[in-house]
Amino acid sequence: MLASHNWLMELSGLSVDPTEVAKRLTLAGLEVESTRTYGAKLDKVVVAEVRSMRPHPQREKLRLVTVFDGAHESEVVCGAPNVPSPGGRVAFAQLGASLPNGMTIEERKLGGVVSTGMICSEVELDIGADSDGILILDGGAVPGTPLTAALGLNDTVYEIGLTPNRPDCLGHVGIARELCTLF
């Protein structure tokens, strides 16, 4: 059973550290087999607005995309087929960002053009399985907003090993009730 810490806190009305939740659940017989934290490595990934797009001067399959990250414009070399038209919102890794896959974003020269950042896909951000193109966001997201805040990604997910005698904990509501009794 996978359970979201944020949902459990919302349903129970508690405000408890994920480590303490895991400890108490395990002591109560709901063994927390593992935890996974999301959004921790995305501190320099923000919502950006596409301002313009043009073909790369030397490479046929690449495009030069100008994005606005809430503070300044950056030109990025991008090969994704689904870059939105100007006004669209994307996930933009600023210079110095470290992505979950271990990649650090630095200035890179591609075909004679310097790319100052990276427009990211779900796979590169470790938030989904779609690697066919970049992550396109809702138009309501404000440029410069941290991606974790825009998508609600700051969360811990517990993998709980349930025994057959605890069908009451097969959902978030049951686990939240259990947490209320434990705290």
Structural features, described:
The longest helix is centred in the C-terminal third of the chain and has 11 residues, at 172-182. Strands 3, 4, 5, 6, 9 and 10 form a 6-stranded antiparallel β-sheet that branches. A 3-stranded antiparallel β-sheet has the order 1-11-2. It has 5 helices and 11 strands; from the N terminus they run E-H-H-E-E-E-E-E-E-E-E-H-E-H-E-H. The two termini are 21 Å apart. With 183 residues, the chain is an alpha+beta fold.
Give the tags:
single chain; 183 residues; alpha+beta; 3-stranded antiparallel beta sheet
Poorly predicted runs of 5 or more residues: none
H-E string: EHHEEEEEEEEHEHEH
What's the β-strand tally? Answer: 11
How much beta, percentage-wise?
A: 25-35%
Helix content: 10-25%
